[in-house]
Amino acid sequence: MGCSFRPELGAYSQPPHGGLEYGRLREEGVDPGEILDFSVSTNPFPPCGEVLEAVGKAAVGRYPDPSSGELCAALAGENSISPDRVLAVNGLAQAISLAAFAFSDRGKRVLVTDPAFGEYAASCRLAGADVVSVRAVKENDFAFPLEGLVEAVERCRPSLVWVCSPNNPTGVLPGKGQIADLLGICGKTDTLLVVDEAYINFAPPGSSVLPLLSENMLVMRSMTKDYGLTGLRLGYVLGDPRLLGAMRSLQPPWSVNACAQAAGLAAVANSPYYETQWALLRDLAARLLEGLRQAGFAPVPSSGNFLLFAVDSTDALKAFLWEHRILVRDCASFGLEGFVRVGVKSAEENERLLQCLREFREEVR
Hints:
The structure is a single chain. Helix content is 41%, strand content 15%. The chain is α/β, with parallel strands linked by helices. The protein has a seven-stranded mixed sheet with strand order 2-8-7-6-5-3-4, sandwiched between helices. Helix 5 (119-126) links the parallel strand 3 (109-114) and strand 4. Helix 3 (69-78) packs parallel to helix 10 (258-269). The radius of gyration is 21 Å and the shape is globular. It starts with 21 loop residues before the first helix and ends with a helix. The relative contact order is 0.17.
């Protein structure tokens, strides 16, 4: 065909993600409800009744507010910030894509702290930028590679630096002092620092770097994860109005649908309900970590609602767990061959996973 397309598409492929493979389920005749999905890291508990009620009452017969004005005002109040510093988005995947195309381009460089969520690098490569990886190492429990990042910022002078806090998939939480140091270096090189806090509400209270927000920094949040709104796709970005304006100019109209806006408003209005869930999940994560250790595995200490650990054969483990209708995340796509990640679920579901892992260890001995 004679039509042309963006050159970067020739080498582009969607990065793998967790979640159910619906095509496979159809082929095998498996009901999605049969699967215990540990491959995703979301709030496993039900939303509050007010959220479900708000979704049911959403005005689906008319276009939603394209600016999500009421939701942004509520999120601004929740974060003690002005509404013009909030941008509502259709999940953080959209926010990442908007930032990539707004702040990176052909001929520019972008830094990514690896291992990390694949959308950072994929979106920036699609925008035409060269992606430079600064890797956290297994031998140091994947500690935040501040020295490597500072050196790379000074050497490459990138347009954009991506940091995930807590990191996905390791669960490592950068210190506020480390982010402040990195932000200082970025300020000297006219580099935008983007901190993805999709899992921040599962970390110890007070972990957010939002107090450091400056004119060359964005903070991204995912209501998909902490508020359990996975099926609605909802998130938001906090930052300087000028930066958010650049992203908004690329955002398709009506990106955040009426149901998502209504659910977000109701969720924010019922924050204590969710804060109780987050505290419970922190406790469940600690218990699951100890259970994994007792089962003979060595999970990486995590500040997220997920745990990363090494296995001798990921293929063998995945096949064994699939027979029990349990799904885990193979982390080879993060560049971590021989590692899997499991989300934290209810106490009963976590115990079912641990029992299967104990049986797996016995079988392979």
